[in-house]
Amino acid sequence: MNVTPSGVVRIVVSDRLHAAAFPGHPGTYEVTEPEEVRELLTAAVDGPAGERDDFVCMCRGEFGLVSYDAAGGPVRTVDRHGPLPLLDPALPQSIPARHRAAWAAAAPGPLRGYAEGWARGDPPAPGTVTVPPGPVLRWLGTPPGGTLDAARDVARLAPLALLDAVATDELARAVRTADAAGLDGAVEFFASEHFTARHPKKRRVGATARELLLRHARTRRPGHAAVLERRVLLAAEDRIRR
């Protein structure tokens, strides 16, 4: 494991400054890439601005940073006031911008331009991008690795925004031909408020698609199964068989 001189391998950032203002930017995320950890330690902890981290203000700072060692123990906590360019998601060289750019670069080809707009904080207007729902379901069902980096919220919101505009019967057809990743994404979407906020008449799917969703949820996403059973309503018999 690559460890910094101070023994820090992970920093958890709480970003109060940008969480509400920048589309899809999480309030909390992790920095684990060794060079990024070193950069952030230098800029926010070991540099002059970090020298007063023993001072605790009741209003708290815009940025909270908790660093951890290889054993998972906390090393240091810093509460920062004022702007910190390295953590500003709107700046191309910042750590959040790098995480978002890497996520956009990994998007499926037809979705890359759409992802790049989200990565810049400029998501396309609803309805201006039209793609088949199948690839979008797979995209939603294949989130970036396990790290809770600064792209994690946009990685969920961007595909959900595309699926919002798709008619239910078209979504159901995509479910019937989906692979495991596509079914993961379908369960995520059909159990979300993005689907369940629809009018009940627009929440009806055929028996085949509904059963595929429920079976997959019970096996892979048991926490979603009860929600799906309640909110995905049954339409007339679906005579298309896989």
Key phrases:
alpha+beta, two-stranded parallel sheet, elongated, disordered C terminus, four-stranded antiparallel β-sheet, 242 residues
What features would you describe in this structure?
The chain starts with 7 loop residues before the first strand and ends in an 8-residue tail after the last strand. It has helices at residues 34-46, 95-105, 112-119, 133-141, 152-164, 168-176, 180-190, 193-196, 207-220, 222-231; strands at 8-15, 28-31, 63-69, 74-80, 204-205, 233-234. A hairpin with a 4-residue loop joins strand 3 (63-69) and strand 4. The chain has 242 residues and is of the alpha+beta class. It contains 10 helices and 6 strands. Helix content is 42%, strand content 12%. The longest helix is centred in the last third of the chain and has 14 residues, at 207-220. The chain is elongated, with a radius of gyration of 21 Å. Residues 49-58 and 238-242 have low confidence and may be disordered. The chain has a 4-stranded antiparallel β-sheet with strand order 2-1-3-4, with helices on one face. The protein has a two-stranded parallel sheet with strand order 5-6.
Mean model confidence by pLDDT = 88
**Rg, Cα atoms, Å:** 21 Å
Strand percentage lies at 5-15%
**Helix/strand-derived class?**
alpha+beta
Shape: elongated
CA-CA gap between termini: 47 Å
Task: Identify low-pLDDT runs.
Answer: 49-58, 238-242
Main β sheet profile? 4 strands, antiparallel
Number of strands: 6
Number of helices: 10
Strand order of the largest sheet: 2-1-3-4
Helix content: 40-55%
- Element string (H = helix, E = strand): EEHEEHHHHHHHEHHE
